[in-house]
């Protein structure tokens, strides 16, 4: 029987971007939410800016928390559920960290005991404030916080994988204590899956939290290497969904495509709708998909300075709330899709060793083999090399064929849609 997949959007306010928390205007928020609800989407992901909400380690501003609750209530009035990101953290090329963690007060975000106390208190406060709201889905710890822990960040907060694991456990527990039983999770950008020295690991992503989140951006080398209409570009989101399953202990752990967008100029505006249709169709062919949350709702205003050029055009809606072609495409898919994917019976072997993750990145042998299989219609998933001979694990996932990358030969398709 077909089952439901959630369709939503990452909410970028049309007025003031995320700086709107400084001049919170509920009427403007309501107008934004009306334009989102009109597309037929069912949830949003929202982003309190951490230094605005907790400017001092001992001060979590009550008015800011109240404004967040009012936003969630306004979303409920429009039939929208809400996921709240906590530690913002990093957004659209800007870092937002409170002064009590930087410069003269420089302390490691993942290991300093006082910083951990402050973070846990903050996440607990937000979760508790929303615990009785029926449309509150749960907390995401922060937006791509792994970018703070390693290069290419210019000033990383170094930590070991064990220290990151302890950080994840404590922060997720703070969210659960504040709002028991909700979908609390963590979410990283794709270096978790692709970068050999990243202390946030695939195993953590696929085993900690209520579900696995993946963020799919084809400006990571995929579109540059293969082109905008290639199989790798149009199936990159599906690849991350299926790659995550190799590390999951639960054979049917839900996966949330929490961020995916059409970045110009690699995906030009006139091709964004086609890219969206192809990306969503490939994701809907993945079993155990929880939902798809597009980045983002509204364009960044040209009145704001210093954003990378692509950030000004990623919205489903313009800055004055007019839907683009891409919005109509996503709305149609949300309205008319059927979700009943067949099991993926062919599994490609991937290395369990996190120091070999680059093999899964664009140009790596795992990445390229996956898309040769996809081009041939094989609908692959992935399995760890340590589980490739585990008959019980394979059976639980419906896998009947296991291939190593060197067994996947080049095809006439060349990895490009014919």
Task: Describe this protein's structure.
The model is unreliable at 413-418 (pLDDT under 50). A hairpin with a 2-residue loop joins strand 4 and strand 5. The protein folds into two domains: 6-336, TIM Barrel; 346-407, no CATH class. It starts with 5 loop residues before the first strand and ends in a 15-residue tail after the last strand. By secondary structure, it is an alpha/beta fold. It has helices at 26-37, 50-53, 62-77, 113-130, 161-178, 191-194, 202-207, 222-226, 231-234, 236-244, 272-283, 325-336, 365-375, 391-397; strands at residues 6-10, 43-46, 81-87, 90-91, 94-95, 136-143, 185-187, 212-216, 255-260, 289-294, 346-350, 381-384, 401-403. The protein is built from 14 helices and 13 strands. The strands form three sheets. Strands 7-6-3-2-1-10-9-8 form an eight-stranded parallel sheet. Strands 12-11-13 form a three-stranded parallel sheet. Helices cover 33% and strands 14% of the residues. It comes from Streptomyces mexicanus. GO terms for molecular function: hydrolase activity. InterPro entries: GH.
Proportion in β-strands = 5-15%
The main β sheet shows up as:
8 strands, parallel
Domain unit count: 2
| Alpha-carbon Rg, integer | 21 Å
State the total count of DSSP E strands.
13
Please identify the structural class as seen in this structure. Answer: alpha/beta
H/E topology pattern:
EHEHHEEEHEHEHHEHHHEHEHEHEHE
Sheet with most strands: strand arrangement? 7-6-3-2-1-10-9-8
CATH architecture term of the largest domain: Alpha-Beta Barrel
Tally of separate helices: 14
Give the helix proportion (percent range).
25-40%
What's the overall geometry? globular
State the distance separating the first and last CA atoms. Answer: 32 Å
CATH homologous superfamily identity of the largest domain = Glycosidases
| Average pLDDT taken over every residue | 96
Q: Low-confidence runs (pLDDT<50, min 5 residues)?
A: 413-418
Keywords: Hydrolase
GO molecular function, one term: hydrolase activity
Protein name: Glycosyl hydrolase
InterPro entries: GH (IPR017853)
């Amino acid at each position: 029987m077909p089952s439901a997949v959630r369709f939503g959007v990452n909410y970028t306010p049309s007025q003031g971007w995320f700086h709107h928390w400084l001049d919170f205007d509920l009427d403007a928020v309501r107008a934004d939410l009306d334009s989102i609800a009109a597309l037929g989407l069912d949830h949003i992901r929202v982003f309190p800016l951490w230094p605005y909400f907790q400017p001092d380690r001992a001060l979590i501003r009550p008015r800011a928390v109240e404004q967040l609750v009012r936003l969630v209530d306004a979303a409920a009035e429009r039939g929208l559920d809400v996921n709240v990101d906590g530690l913002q953290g990093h957004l659209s090329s800007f870092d937002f960290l409170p002064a009590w963690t930087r410069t003269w007060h420089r302390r490691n975000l993942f290991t300093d005991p006082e910083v951990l106390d402050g973070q846990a208190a903050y996440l607990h406060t937000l979760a508790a404030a929303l615990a009785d709201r029926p449309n509150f889905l749960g907390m995401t710890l922060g937006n791509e916080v792994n970018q703070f822990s390693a290069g290419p960040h210019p000033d990383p907060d170094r930590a070991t994988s064990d220290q990151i694991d302890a950080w994840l456990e404590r922060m997720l527990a703070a969210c659960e204590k504040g709002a028991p039983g909700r979908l609390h999770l963590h979410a990283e950008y794709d270096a978790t899956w692709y970068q050999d020295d990243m202390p946030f690991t695939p195993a953590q992503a696929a085993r900690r939290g209520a579900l696995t989140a993946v963020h799919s951006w084809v400006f990571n080398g995929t579109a540059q290497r293969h082109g905008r209409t290639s199989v790798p570009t149009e199936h990159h989101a599906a690849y991350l969904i299926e790659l995550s399953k190799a590390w999951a202990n639960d054979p049917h752990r839900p996966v949330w495509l929490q961020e995916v967008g059409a970045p110009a100029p690699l995906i030009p505006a006139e091709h964004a709708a086609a890219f969206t249709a192809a990306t969503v169709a490939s994701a809907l062919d993945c079993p155990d998909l929880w939902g798809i949350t597009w980045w983002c709702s509204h364009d960044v205003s040209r009145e704001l300075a210093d954003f990378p050029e692509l950030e000004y055009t990623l919205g489903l809606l313009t800055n004055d709330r007019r839907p683009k072609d891409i919005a109509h495409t996503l709305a149609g898919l949300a309205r008319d899709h059927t979700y009943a994917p067949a099991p993926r019976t062919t599994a490609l072997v991937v290395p369990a060793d996190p120091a070999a993750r680059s093999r899964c990145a664009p140009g790596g042998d795992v990445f390229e083999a996956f898309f040769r299989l996809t081009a041939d219609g094989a609908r692959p998933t992935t399995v760890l090399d340590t589980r490739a001979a585990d008959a019980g694990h394979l059976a639980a996932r419906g896998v009947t064929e296991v291939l190593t990358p060197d067994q996947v030969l080049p095809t006439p398709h060349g990895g490009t849609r014919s």
